[in-house]
Amino acid sequence: MLVQQSAEPGLRHPGQDGATPPVVARCLSQFRLEVDGRSVSHWRAGKARALFQYLLVNRDRPVHRDRLYEVLWPERGDRNSSSLKVAVHAVRRVLTEFEDRDGFTLLHQDRGYLLRTNGAWVDIEEFERAFDRGRRAWVAKDHDSALACFQRAADLYAGDFLAGETGDWIDEQRQWMRDTALRALSVLRSESLEREDWPAAMHWCRRTIEVDPYHEAAYQTLMMMHGELGELGRVLSWYELYRHRLRNDLGIEPDERTERLLAALMRGRSRPPVPGLRP
């Protein structure tokens, strides 16, 4: 596994330098808003929590009121009801409970609303910042910094965006964040293989499967590495897990490349017969 390196300048951690930020918002996995370590659970109005979540994703950018109606009340054609005002009032009531903390400010602006994050720590903001810094460092061929940033992004990805919640905008954002995490994990996995650091490569393969249970390349890589180690039982167990998930969840069978790889490894061939695949 990669050794955890110091964060790049500008990347903040909750609890960095021994101090926990007073206001923390988490959207990766289940949603949590915490003030001084205590979870905010009372949102007063039905759509207040959803409004805050949407504005948090669009933080520091004004969102027009029509867009908010479209997102929060998609079944309604009426854009003149008081529903939005009620939800905004409820969010402001929540925020005033910790107005003495460096957290969030909700403003009315350009016929819509804008959420300023001020000094709050937001996991999706740190996740996106870490990945973007890693991408730019990689392009600049500063691979050590890039890997540290990609590992930071992978570590921040604690689960799917707003796990357990539904909505078209949530599904779209969830897929985007999942794809971003998989891109970071792909680099970490490939670099571990280049260094022939099998424990790290296995770790990043397993993290990849946690994010995407049907990620064929991750299963293939695990099979090959265990084949290199002569652990044929583990080769077969990873293949069986992959096949079981495909059959039960998607009603399909593993790709022919995976079948050929399994057959070769079980015959004792450590080197894969499939072009482009290697331990």
UniProtKB/TrEMBL annotation:
Query: What does the UniProt keyword field contain?
Result: DNA-binding
This protein's record includes keyword DNA-binding: yes
> Which residue numbers delimit the DNA-binding region?
8-117
- Claim: DNA-binding is one of the keywords in the record: yes
* Every OmpR/PhoB-type domain range: 8-117
| Residue span of region Disordered | 1-21
Q: By its UniProt entry, which InterPro entries does this protein fall under?
A: AfsR-DnrI-RedD_regulator, BTAD, OmpR/PhoB-type_DNA-bd, Sig_transdc_resp-reg_C-effctor, TPR-like_helical_dom_sf, WH-like_DNA-bd_sf
Q: By its UniProt entry, which SMART domains does this protein fall under?
A: BTAD (SM01043), Trans_reg_C (SM00862)
Tell me which Gene3D superfamilies the record gives.
Tetratricopeptide repeat domain, Winged helix-like DNA-binding domain superfamily/Winged helix DNA-binding domain
Q: In this record, what's one Pfam family?
A: Trans_reg_C
Record-stated family: Belongs to the AfsR/DnrI/RedD regulatory family.
State the protein's name.
BTAD domain-containing putative transcriptional regulator
